[in-house]
Amino acid sequence: MTLVLTLKAQPPQRLDLSPLVPNLLKDKSAKEIAAIDLATTKEPAKVGDIFGIRAGSADEIRFEGGSERFDNVGAAATSGRVVLTGDAGSNLGRKLAGGEVIVKGHVGPYAGSGIESGRLEIIGDAGDFLGAPREGEIHGMSGGLLIVRGTVGDRAGDRLRRGTIIIEGDAGDWLGSRLVAGTLIVLGAVGLNPGYLMRRGTLALANPPELPPYFVDCGSYFAAFATAIGRALKPESAGVDRFFRSPLHRFAGDMSVLGKGEIFIPG
């Protein structure tokens, strides 16, 4: 049976929910979970103050009811499954190292920041800095799979190091800024300056804006690996499969830095 945490009422303050992940709640009773302290911005709070608890296996944790004041949902999880029905705040799935996190709602900034492994899916929209590093960190996402079914804000994929990001809706400005490696796919429209200062890695843009002048037109492109990528990602996104099966055009850049990155657009 799944462990279910039901929101009692909208919280009056921000809450750090990072203690509520499968690997940290394993073998705990409902009473022990209710007594866990949550970091807050004002008054002290315990899990039992915020949620009604239905005991079950912590291998899967289901939150019934969300809030934009829920920060760090699924953060640093190493195994299991976390499902939240509703919205979440900042740092969703930050430093995820295994397992799966699914949010059926909208989320704030820094969703998927520094993911190392595992799968993070956002059914709604996400804020700025999707998958990006926090202040003082060198790299953003370094592995795993991050999917957003809605739109995202600015600087998505900033300093992406490894792994795959799929955005099925629109993306804001500075998409894939300072990209180091990895793959970022956007099926919707994209804002200004995609790939700014990207060194390596791949952007796949189904509806690209006019690309900046520091990207070089390499002409039409065909490679068997593109079809293979589309086929591999088809279970996650049929739109991605269709994009990679269609004719492609390749640009190389950013030539103002290393210039080994590439942008694919429809050919």
Task: Summarize the structure in words.
This protein is mostly beta strands and 267 residues long. Helix content is 12%, strand content 34%. The protein is built from 5 helices and 17 strands. A 13-stranded mixed sheet has the order 5-1-6-8-9-10-11-12-13-14-17-16-15. A hairpin with a 4-residue loop joins β3 (37-40) and β4 (45-46). The longest helix has 10 residues, at 224-233. The chain is elongated and about 65 Å long. The N and C termini lie far apart (50 Å). The mean pLDDT is 96.
> Which band does the percent of strand residues land in?
25-35%
Largest sheet: 13 strands, mixed
The number of helices is: 5
- Looking across the biggest beta sheet, what order are the strands in? 5-1-6-8-9-10-11-12-13-14-17-16-15
What's the assembly state of these chains? single chain
So what's the overall shape?
Answer: elongated
Arithmetic mean of pLDDT: 96
Could you list the spans in which at least 5 consecutive residues all have pLDDT below 50? Answer: none
Broad structural category: mainly beta
Helix and strand element order: EEHHEEHEEEEEEEEEEEHHEE
Q: In angstroms, what separates the terminal alpha carbons? A: 50 Å
Instruction: Give the helix level as a range of percent.
Output: 10-25%
Write down how many β-strands occur, each being a DSSP E stretch of 2 or more residues.
Answer: 17
As a whole number of angstroms, the C-alpha radius of gyration is: 19 Å
